[in-house]
Specification:
The structure is a homodimer of 343-residue chains. With 343 residues, chain A is of the alpha/beta class. The first copy, chain A, folds into 3 domains: 44 residues, 434 Repressor (Amino-terminal Domain), CATH 1.10.260.40; 127 residues, Response regulator (Rossmann fold, 3-Layer(aba) Sandwich), CATH 3.40.50.2300; 131 residues, 3-Layer(aba) Sandwich (Rossmann fold). Chain A is built from 12 helices and 11 strands. Chain A has a 6-stranded parallel β-sheet, sandwiched between helices. In chain A, strands 6-7-8-9-11 form a 5-stranded mixed β-sheet, with helices on both faces. In chain A, α1 packs across α2, α1 packs across α3 and α7 runs parallel beside α8. The radius of gyration of chain A is 27 Å and the shape is elongated. At the A-B interface, α4, α5, β2, α6 and α10 of A face α4, α5, β2, α6 and α10 of B. Chain A binds a DNA duplex (30 and 30 nucleotides) through α2 and α4.
DNA sequence: CGGGCGGCCGAAAAGGTTTTCAGAAACGTA
DNA sequence: TACGTTTCTGAAAACCTTTTCGGCCGCCCG
């Protein structure tokens, strides 16, 4: 059975075809379809009907050529594998998806040459704006000031303060984690985290220490346990910690992976979570956090929201209201069962 | 300090500017830059130099308008969150990224209406082709036969056999897993897997049973343990399994999540992996598999390669060689430490 | 020396749309 | 009736590039 699909313009049908069918000129057809006022209602209706009948959809390339606006933006990510770029990308795609702009996805694989290549291609396609999503929350080189379109940096801030960058709040996240543990009545709080070469590790630790000192508390175990972003390190560090400081009553892990290792060892040692020791993670990597035993309280950096805001800021810049500097997006606490008030 | 608004500078430099600087006509400039033969070497050099000097990049919209090829493809995914669409998307982006086509990313969030909306937008942008990436390996409705551009379905096959679909090999993967266990000398093999409502669960089980019957082996535990795609189910099922069938020497888990639960209980029960019981997972979800204790042998469905092949097939179709039917992409075994020969 | 030919270049059309501006039609006013 | 005004429509330019085709020039051959 032949059904003509109304959403499928079969052969490129142009405005000229619509105009001919409606018995008007292309100029009038254009105005009718775009809601311009200088066209009689009756005429407009005729044009609209013709357009529907032919299932006309305007050639965006031609529109872009004349309006000098392609209605597209480029999403330049340096690391699609990285789990951090994906939610940001989702948020951005989501924020644009609703209105009439489409998104070009480019993955530079962390390679500066490839990035230049993609940048060139995107400019050649006359994108109206760019979002640059980094793989690590550390500073990255700016694309430069003389680009013909506005740029927003997400996750990795640009090294040029004249650019607009959006970053996660690692300091605030660390503070938030410790604050939660304190509110649960914990006083002997340890911090096990990842590679000290990551700014994120340093920032989270800084936030944690800041909140502790407000309460005149010291870190249980005497210091921050830097190491690696892995379960194995979480296990090893926990064993050492328990030896040095057996009366610890809360552990703030610098990532959910590390937290999984922590939980694992506590389980082995028959130390109950959360009644004896509370554990809090970081990142809210659902697959790890929600499936942990017990499910893991953790800090969510709101990456998706970061992506959405990046899209909004870019839209504003494209409309002539550019921003600059570094904007920090707050995180939020996700409470599960690995933390609870004492007693 | 006041800096000039970064959105203000570079007015788009056109071919006309290049031509003027080189002292030729736009026609000649075009031919010179595109390697057309009817232009003297000296003239060509002059044009190229001018283009570089102005850092000219051709307006792709105008090119697309005249060549009737936009040099873009649409990537229509139904579920960006899902971990399966991401690698496919990466592979596709990668395969295109090298040459001169750019990729529009659209996430329909599993909503048919949004999908129609995006489809319309993409066609309006005159994409040269479409890749539709599903969220589940089950059949999905075709976009229809009367689209003006070729389409390739990835992961979720289309319900129209005239379309070209690429899918993962779940049957082969199940067979591969069991084959590996048999080669390790295991004879009492159990299978714990996820939701029986998923075709993937059924297919993997079918492959496993097929390989077992070739060896005249029965499934340890007597049946396939269907349940949920979670660690908790992996734990629960393993406990029941050990009770009913204490002499099991290998467990094939239907996903890495489930495998993590399996490992967890075996560890609790002081049953050594792999010397006493071998464990194999499925999906090669690195964060789970590589960090397990011991690191998990698992089946990788080669999703990234699936994406790459989808891109290749689409390119072929755009060049006039369309395909149809369902093409199955084989998986591969990733050997880690949770399996080993007996003795 | 004239005609033919090959090499090189430019004018112009085409692609599909938006926008400006002039003109036509209808209507009201003097 | 003549004229101004309002309302609507269409011709044409513009956006930027590619491609076709005709023209110019110098050269070779007869």
């Amino acid at each position: 059975m032949e059904t003509t699909n109304p959403t499928a313009p079969n052969r490129a049908v142009t405005l000229r075809d619509v105009a001919r069918l409606a018995g008007v000129s292309v100029a009038t057809a254009s105005k009718a379809l775009n809601g311009q006022p200088q066209v009689r209602a009756e005429t407009r209706a005729r044009v609209v009907r013709a357009a529907e009948q032919l299932s006309f959809s305007p050639n965006t390339l031609a529109q872009g050529l004349i309006t000098q606006r392609s209605g597209t933006v480029g999403l330049l990510t340096s690391d699609l594998e990285g789990r951090f770029s994906i939610p940001i990308l989702m948020g951005a795609e989501d924020a644009f998806g609703s209105d009439q702009t489409s998104v070009f996805l480019c993955d530079a694989r962390g390679d500066a040459i490839r990035e230049k290549h993609h940048l060139r291609a995107l400019l050649s396609r006359r994108v109206d704006g760019l979002i640059v999503v980094g793989a690590r929350p550390d500073t990255r080189p700016s694309l430069g000031r003389d680009l013909p379109v506005p740029v927003v940096y997400a996750y990795s801030p640009s090294d040029d303060p004249a650019d607009l960058s959006l970053v996660t709040d690692n300091v605030g996240g660390g503070r938030m984690a410790v604050d939660h543990l304190i509110r649960c009545g914990r006083r002997r709080i340890a911090h096990i985290t990842g590679d000290p070469g990551y700014g994120a590790a340093q920032d989270r630790a800084r936030g944690a220490l800041g909140r502790l000192s407000e309460e005149n508390l010291e870190l249980a175990g005497g210091e921050v346990w830097f190491g690696m972003w892995s379960e194995a390190w979480g296990r090893g560090a926990t064993r050492m910690l328990l030896e040095r400081c057996p009366d610890v009553d809360a552990i703030f892990a610098g990532s959910d992976e590390i937290a999984r290792g922590v939980l694992d060892v506590l389980h082995e040692e028959r130390i109950d979570v959360p009644s004896q020791v509370a554990v809090i993670g970081f990142d809210n990597w659902t697959i790890l956090a929600a499936n942990a035993r017990p499910p893991l309280t953790t800090v969510d950096l709101n990456l998706e929201q970061l992506g959405r805001i990046a899209a909004q800021r870019l839209s504003a810049a494209m409309d002539g209201t550019p921003g600059s500097g570094v904007e920090t997006i707050p995180g939020r606490l996700v409470t599960r069962e690995s933390t609870a008030p004492l007693r």
